[in-house]
Amino acid sequence: MDNRPIGVFDSGLGGLTAVKELEAALPEESIVYFGDTGRVPYGTRSRETVRRYARQDMAFLLEHHVKAVLAACGTVSANAGDVGARLPVPYFDVVAPTAAAAAKATGNGKIGVIGTTASINSGAYVQALEAIDARLKVFASPCPLFVPLVENGFVQTGDQVARLVAERYLEPLGQAGIDTLILGCTHFPIIAGTIRLVLGEKVRLIDSGKEAALALANFLGEHEMLCQPGRPRRAEYYVSDSLENFGGAAAQFLGHEVEAARIDIESYVVSHNSDF
Q1: pTM of the predicted model, to two decimals?
Q2: Rounded Cα–Cα distance for residues 234 and 107 (Å)
Q3: Cys bridge to 217: 25, 92, 137, 239, which one at CB 3.0-4.6 A?
């Protein structure tokens, strides 16, 4: 058994969708979450900047003595997997488990992938899917406005602003005949209703945060790293920007309000953890 908490991070609040899945799969596990709200979104940054941010986020979680780290961020997952692989604890991201779920789900072999610009430009999902089955046809499209829409509350199904943006991004994927769509950013499940309005109910949506959370949960169980049953659970939430309205915003992702503390993420420099 391992009573240390699970560490989860994202560029903002979207990673809370993965935390919600962890709470459902592992209700007794403690969690430390960091949302880099002061630097969101990561998807418009250079690869070098994303990797620097990822190192700082991971360094912060390691100081909380976590037993595993989940990068609940599609951009980090696509651009800094090698950084996570060098951590002294098990590392999980969203790409591999999500690609596997999509490959299993598709009926016609046509899979769409949406994510931030940096995530799509990395080609990580295309490479992962083609490695599973070279016959798959993958249609990848960046959706850079989805993250700010979610972070600013344009999340109601059918919201006029969100729907117009979704139509612009998603209609080419619908015309391509996809039957499965990877939500390659953990913010995107929050507007899944609007996405379904545009693409139709027949297109299956694959939630990257859910698939990553399930992969982590399975790993902990298989390696006897779950916490002691009946041990009091704790959940800690940290952000890098204002705490104003955090509880209400977080409730959109978790289904319940939580409190957070603000930290200076820039103080977690790479030199403190030079091995990764």
Answers
A1: 0.91
A2: 41
A3: 25
